[in-house]
Design goal:
The protein is α/β, with parallel strands linked by helices. The protein contains 18 helices and 14 strands. It is globular and about 70 Å long.
Length: 431
Amino acid sequence: MSFTSLGLSESLLKALEKKGYTEPSPIQQKAIPLVLKRHDLLASAQTGTGKTAGFTLPILQILSENPRQGRRNIRSLILTPTRELAAQIQDNIRAYSEFLDIRSTVIFGGVNQAPQVATLKNGIDILIATPGRLLDLYQQRLLSIANVEILVLDEADRMLDMGFAKDIKRILAILPEKRQNLLFSATFSLEIKKLASGILHDPELVEVTPEVITAEKVTHKIIRVDKSQKPNLLVKLIKDGDWQQVLIFTRTKHGANKLSERLDKSGISSAAIHGNKTQNARTKALSNFKSGDIKVLVATDIAARGLDIPLLPYVINFELPNVPEDYVHRIGRTGRAGAGGDAISLVSMDEMDYLKAIQKLLSQTLKSEIIKGFEPTEAEDTPQVKQEQRKPNPNFRKPNNQNAGGRPQHKEQSRTSSDNKKPKRFFGKRD
């Protein structure tokens, strides 16, 4: 199938050809015709599937075919969870609309609002925004969304995870009731279904193959190591391999800062990006990483959403995510555009249940290895060993149930606290 068969205009086809795009992805094949027919849409699509073009291309066509008379007003609003994703969507829209009379801009917090306000005053057709900055400028009466015809909630599950539910409801309350609604989410959780039921009208449902299937050239590697030895092993891997560009994931902002400082002290240039960093700091860190001025970028899951780093060779999970789908998002940073890549996970004993959940999602068992000099000392707590401990010993002689002091003598020692700790899937606010 080609983009021509999807009913796109010559101007859009010309822009796609200029970017070298010839064949639509599965999400684009399914979503574009439905959006062009003005259906509401509930789509399950993960990062790396081409979902951005799946909604931006038909929106551009709809707006260009029905030009508004007089002053430009915001006719399409695209809400995203992070600044990086918002900026990436704007880059795509700018490229796709090169041969159209369509204006767009992006607004997000963490930067001076004056340039954003100046652009809005000149009139735009499409606004890409994070919820907080949108409401801030609206309350200052610096923008109006009274003329929005098409609303997009991109990565809606991530917005709920980040605590934007109330902001989204406030935005919905000030939008026109009559509009087309497009909701994209990596998962269809109960929260997403509840959100969708209050927004979408008789929606079409679109689901595509998970991203992990598309990253065929990514090599998965599990390295077992004690938690305390992870920083030392990481330094060894980077130095011995002479790795020049490495994206590392941690679960927390504090962990990202701490690891970046540790790498710097070891002579490995790095920077951390997360929600507490200013937009200027995050932009500078990403720019330095892409240019090679720093070797390592340490990121949390939320901060890394929307990052587009061509030909990234290494992604390292310093800590496994406690939501298995996030593993797919992480490794999706490498192995893009047909290139190869390595996804390496440093796994300690307390993360074994996370690993099981990830392997279940991938429908495959990931091979583990141990690096000499970093052998895990927590091996006695592994599930396999605990299973062996439960097997009856034929030479075991049952002792008297009473000891010398008259107290009951238990056959088994009390379990360690780590045995009783089972990771829980996290659905609250992160990063």
